[in-house]
Amino acid sequence: MGTMSWTTFLERVQKDYPNAKPEKVLNMIRTAYKKGVKESQFQTIRNSWAYIVVGGIANKHGTKDINKKVPLTQTISNYVKSKQYKDDWCLFHPKKVKNKKTNRQELSNATEEDFKKIPRSKHVRNCNEIWISVKGKKVRKNLSPDNKFYIKSPLSTHLKNI
Question: Which of 43, 84, 131, 145 has the fewest Cβ atoms within 10 Å of its own Cβ atom?
């Protein structure tokens, strides 16, 4: 993209994203660049989604015969059709709701209706994008040969030193 001046940046934001509000853009920048800011619960949950998707695809969840060679698109489609995917999607795509008693915003699981609003083809496309993304590739590198995530603990660190 090259070097961009603030003036060019603002013009481009206003042109390409006319509905973007300065407060929202500033909050995004704060989240990305402010030091010492802890990740919110929402961000932690959403950042974990790539691990769930990659693990589900790598382990061929929803595929009847996991030893059979199946095209990646079919594996992803089978995973998206599974109850496991639907449950995971609802859990890892929380909604912000207002608690009437405390008058504060809280996170709540997405509902089955929210899940069904998105066509299956879009779910498959989104999972494929996660699989081929830079983050997806990093997650796949962390899988063991049998497609499991390594567990790191103080004991395993100690055993490596022996």
Answer: 145
